[in-house]
């Protein structure tokens, strides 16, 4: 099957892809969550975006109670959406808050984290 984002497929084919394609395995009950942090700009590989578009929906379908946390690292060279004003002079000096926000965004590192329960919790729940 061609790797096509699920949202572009007809419903029947999308459900079939969710059930039968690679990555549709039921995860161990010791897995407590999945978190992914990525930059939506072009500075990282397409891997995180492809994971979110193709693999994450299959994992979520096979594991409906598994929480997913998706963090987008803000782009340091663009103003945040709450501060966007179309009539602002682009040559105006940048505020101290904006400089601090950009510096903080530069420090964040893309990552994929799979969380597991403690072994004592697994013994109680029967993981």
UniProtKB/TrEMBL annotation:
Q: Which domain of life is it from?
A: Eukaryota
Q: Where is this region: Disordered?
A: 79-127
Return the Basic and acidic residues bias intervals: 98-107
Q: What is this protein called?
A: Ribosomal protein/NADH dehydrogenase domain-containing protein
Which species does this protein come from? Cutaneotrichosporon oleaginosum
Q: What is the lineage of its organism?
A: Eukaryota, Fungi, Dikarya, Basidiomycota, Agaricomycotina
